[in-house]
Amino acid sequence: MLNFMTESSKNFEETPTIGSFNLGNSKNSFEAIYEQAHDLMMSYNIDPKIDINNMIKQDAIMEQYKDALLDQLKNDAAEYDSKSDSGRYSSLYEQTATMFDNCRDDLIAESTRVGQLLPIKAVDFPVLIKQNLALASKDIIQTEVTKSPIIKKHIERRWIVDKKTGKRWEYPQCFFNDDWKEAYAAGKGTPIDKKPVTLPCFNYSIPEKLCSTSSDPTREFLNHNIKITKVNTKAVPAHGNPGDADYTPAVEAAEIPVDMRVNLSDGTWLGGTIRDAEGNIIDVITGTCDFMNNVVSLSSAAGVVASVVFDGYMSNELNERTVTYDRTREEYEWKIEDGFRADIAYSLEELEDAKALMDMDLYKLTYNDLADTLVQMEDNSILQFLDDMYEKYKGVDLDPLGFNPFIREQTFSCDSTTQTVALQSEYIQKMLKFYVDRFVIDILDTAKIENMTFVLYGNPRYISLLDPEINWVVKSGDSVGGVKLNYSYGIMNAGGVKIQVVSTMKYNEISKNKGRHLRFIPYPLSDDQFTFKHYKYTTHILTAQNSGYRAYDRPGGSMTYLMGTTRNTTATIQGIQGAITLTDTPFILSPNP
């Protein structure tokens, strides 16, 4: 017998009173939705608390049961998504429906092993729905439902490849550093060596003399854009006296930039007039370029220019210098192990007596307690995982273009007196949003990812400072699918990207003495990159009929033993996170850490 029954009188009745703020269960509460689903099944002469073995084997019945339990969620999803235009809650409905199907499949498989499922197994369905809807962290971290406890993902990477050398440059990362220059050179014609060529020169073969030793001169051809970009002069003493008709000033040895090009109509070099720093003409270079034989001829009129430097590329008309592309897939695998468990043991007599003597439905109370415990544990484990990854990579300097994690940090002072005479509230409202914009842009630019969304999460006392900028979709206390939420979810724009905002008291850094933070996580909107994801598999209530599960303290008793467990895992590849720490915040009424 339950302990509290021995301490209660069967004639004891509570005194009815009027005036409480508690208005009772809403008609759209999950308990009310469950009762409606129960009544629907009863109209088909099926009791979902007892006839679980028959229900799971009938597709039509299970679809009606699922629709009855999830119809309110489907309607709420459409309403809330219309506020945010994000599709977030439609996705939540699809995830919950998938978990419902996963649970049914597992129950069918279990029934083939143990014969008959105990009636209490029917509690799996309301537990998983309440657990999934109440989970605050599902809006903080990308959450997906999997049909297998082993998750395999391919992350595709793209490469530019030099066909001759096999050297590879990651695409598009190479365009954000100097690697693109090597890739560019690999796909161009052979570059002309910029070593000086002594004048005069006659029928000078550029393919033989100024091309890489690895190239075949017989397969190299001059490009029409061949240029002379500088000349080297030698020292020449002055001739005559200033004022004389044949006077020429002295010339010092120098490197002079020029822009000589070829006239394609007759092959002659243009722009050969060479001037010194004062603008005096000191020499004139003339010559021709023979594109048929790939040779040039040049001479200097005054002999002042000692050598010239060619620039440009050989023609790539034979397509012998090209780059190609490659795609590779990196394989990742995560396994969902046994999760956190909570248990309670009832005898059938206790279930019956509690209902008869105390008007207490232990069935309903059990799934409420289990659902709440499972969701709190899953929420906290996800937040702890994010904190652990934050501390792990904080201060670690890795190349973000190599799909490496990195942490960004910023400090914002809420003290307006050193900045402006404006009211503190006005200052914080404008400047904190300005800091958030700059912070988001910094993370985007560091990661070089354009197609990205962000999640901003934190304690309500800090998130509320951004209230005027946030379009709240649901607030704490609102109902989604009949389940009251204990967190708020909204949308704001910052730095040109959409920010999904989550305000939850579960994230309480004051108690951890970590400071006042606004936390940021970016999520790429493509399959080519991956920051964080949470994978959900199933939620179960295990009973005495499941092999190996018994109440350890009553191994010989005929107890109905219930064990609740949820199976999930959190994964990361490029764990990018950021935090803005708020300082000088006496108005928050907690001491600065």
Radius of gyration: 38 Å
Largest sheet: 7 strands, mixed
Distance between the termini: 50 Å
- Percent helix, as a range, is 25-40%
Indicate the low-confidence ranges by residue numbers.
4-9, 19-27, 544-549
Percent range for β-strand residues: 25-35%
Mean pLDDT: 80
- How would you write the strand order of the largest sheet? 15-25-22-16-21-20-17
Q: What is the count of DSSP helices, taking H or I runs of 4+ residues?
A: 12
Strand-pairing-aware structural class: alpha+beta
Shape: elongated
The count of β-strands is 25
Describe this structure in words.
The chain has 593 residues and is an alpha+beta fold. The protein has 12 helices and 25 strands. It has helices at residues 3-6, 30-43, 52-55, 59-84, 88-114, 124-134, 179-186, 206-209, 348-358, 362-393, 424-447, 460-463; strands at 143-145, 150-162, 168-171, 197-198, 201-205, 227-233, 254-262, 269-270, 273-275, 281-290, 295-300, 305-311, 323-335, 341-346, 407-413, 452-458, 471-474, 479-480, 483-484, 487-494, 497-504, 517-524, 532-542, 560-572, 577-583. A 7-stranded mixed beta sheet has the order 15-25-22-16-21-20-17. Strand 20 and strand 21 form a beta hairpin. Helix 6 (124-134) packs across helix 10 (362-393). The longest helix has 32 residues, at 362-393.
